[in-house]
Design brief:
The complex is a heterodimer of chains A (262) and B (252). Chain A is mostly helical. Chain A has helices spanning 16-61, 70-91, 95-105, 115-140, 144-152, 157-187, 199-210, 213-243. The longest helix of chain A is centred in the N-terminal third of the chain and has 46 residues, at 16-61. Chain B is an alpha/beta fold and 252 residues long. In chain B, helix 4 (104-114) runs parallel beside helix 6 (149-161), helix 5 crosses helix 6 (149-161) and helix 6 runs parallel beside helix 7. Chain B is globular. The chains are: A mainly alpha (262), B alpha/beta (252). The interface between A and B is large, with 38 and 52 residues. The structure holds adenosine-5'-diphosphate and magnesium ion. Magnesium ion (MG) binds at residues 50-51, 172 of chain B. Magnesium ion binds at residues 50-51, 172 of chain B.
Chain lengths: 262, 252
Amino acid sequence: MFVLSASLSVPTDGNFADWVIFLTQEYGGIFLEGCMWTLLIALVGTVAGCVIGFICGSIQTIEIQDTDPLYKKLFIGILKLIFNIYVEVFRGTPMMVQAMVMYYGLPMIGISLAALPCGFLVVSINTGAYMAESVRGGIDSVDIGQFEAGKAIGMKHFEILRFIVMPQAIRNIMPQIGNQLVINIKDTSVLNVISVSELFFAGKTAASVYYKYFESFFIVAVIYLCLTLVISRIIRFIEKKMDGAADYSLESTGSTELKGEV
Amino acid sequence: MAEKKRKEEIVIRVDDLKKSFGNHQVLKGVDFHVRKGDVTCIIGASGSGKTTLLRCLNLLETPTSGQIYFHEQPITKYKMNIEQFRSRMGMVFQSFNLFNNMSVLDNCMLGPIHVLKKNKEEAREEAEKYLEKVGMHPQINAMPHQLSGGQKQRVAIARALCMHPEVILFDEPTSALDPQMVGEVLAVMKEMAQEGITMVIVTHEMAFARDVSTKTIFMKDGSVVEQGSPERIFYNPTSPYTAEFLARFMAG
Ligand SMILES: Nc1ncnc2c1ncn2[C@@H]1O[C@H](COP(=O)(O)OP(=O)(O)O)[C@@H](O)[C@H]1O
Ligand SMILES: [Mg+2]
């Protein structure tokens, strides 16, 4: 594909550094492509997982009242049960196994997915299960008084969640979202078992031609490390941004007197 | 004055209201009514059920038995549209409960925009008007965590006023404040009282209750011990409990 090797020759009795340079140049394109898929799957998986997590987390906040009609109690009860099972199953099994089960299992129920879409799906669903718990915790950490003040001005449950509680919950769980993104960058490596051409898979490909596993995976490790370091810095920057300015400007047009009429 | 008040329509009527948490009965059959323009102060020792009573009025708590009427309609009737009912009854909390993720101005615009379906310009104009009224207009861009307690509570009052409620419930609005900030909040409330806004106020500010309320209710252990004009409750209580409570409070 992106082979740049026209002028390169294989290091004959090359030492470690020579091989690293050679492999980087020979397989730069493959590493780059693997890097791109890793980032893309991790990012999309984290965002999609957050969406799933927010849906599950919001549903967990619905209180069933004694006065609610039976169908509503049943519907919400069953919904909560399904989401609970989902969270337990996907947190309780390794993502590598989930990838195998989905890749080879889905065709049996008539859904045939190529490796790459399957990879996106596995990471999203897996992240969703973890984010559901984080979101629930994030919502719980928002003061109950925020809900009540929203109710007291006549807002509906989902309006309160959307405008008041979720923005605060998101800020509270931003560190966990960032953490999950970093984990996903690393854990997409398990998708190599279903031959998704992410970074780990690229490392395997590059290593297998000359049997240079150490050199190849050294390059892979450096790339992973760069990705995770950059991503966690970006997340921290976003957190700072969300916290806003430390002070505010006074509005000059108003008067401070306790005057006026209702 | 008393004659004129008597003709005003009854906004809230509470009839034999009972509320239990588990087998702990917190309200043991409470009766009273609120007329339009009334300033009703509820006093009583801590734990006597004042907060629970107030929270039942706008259905933050579900009464166990008894009935609450809003404009002579049982509020269970509003169950189907509880949000609309709540929007007509404002509430000011002891702990302010300003929306932490928005500015002072947005706190006051949220309800009018999403509940009353006002457009942004109109909501902003009104919010600025009421913030000016409570003396918080200079801080419209501030976030709640940048304000003092007294400032927060004045914003919370403006937020309630922006909904044009028919009644505003106050649960110990000054209890979480440093002494020097109590006055600024009471001044705003006093002005609202003079403008004829209907209010139900749980308070430990006895001088305020005596001077501003049109009706004072004394509660003890989940029951109303006595209710009447502040003059009568404060200077001529019929129950020894009331006298004892007032003696303790007015002295301290
Ligand atoms: N959600 C609740 N669950 C159980 N008990 C409660 C709850 N809310 C209040 N109580 C109890 O009800 C009693 C009255 O409380 P409250 O209405 O807050 O009184 P007050 O506002 O007069 O101090 C207290 O004994 C309190 O412990
Ligand atoms: Mg209380």
